[in-house]
What does this fold into?
Amino acid sequence: MEIGHELSDKAKGDLLLVEEAKKGNEKAFASLMNRYRDSIYYMLLKMVNNASDAEDLTIEAFGKAFRSIDSYTPKFAFSTWLFKIATNNCVDFIRKKRLSPTPFDHLQDNLENVTVNIQSDLPDPEESLINHQKIAALKDIVNQLKPRYKSLIELRYYKEYSYEEISSELNLPIGTVKAQLFRAKTLLYNILIKTGHR
It folds into this structure.
């Protein structure tokens, strides 16, 4: 694979991590996240100008990247591929936000809450899998998350708090708790599937 010669040392290091991640190595996922979490976050923060949205979009970008990591080819650096995923996802997010006038945004939030409330606190298949694994296998990944996400995951999966309990413990609106847990859960679920915990 002579393409590798054109890559910088850092990109070659990433390539080794990607190969390990494709085999299901959780530490490799954690290392990739550790390398790029902050730079992805600050790039997205410039795009959306809102710390909370930037955090959510960072989690989403990693979730999407890890879900489709098998499709990554070393024609270009992993960082280029990851930043492209993050940028495209963010552009979609901005477009959706622009398209929906504020009242609709509000309505959408309410609808989201209703849907999640119907499910109440019964774990869905992803949550069951994550609960079953008890995050132990994903400790390295969880440690790379921003403190707020880390707290949410620890309360939900270690201490098995309900959404309401998490909401009052962290002093966050219940809608925020549900939305952020949904994103973090998607990221963890994608990694669990990739690492063969079925």
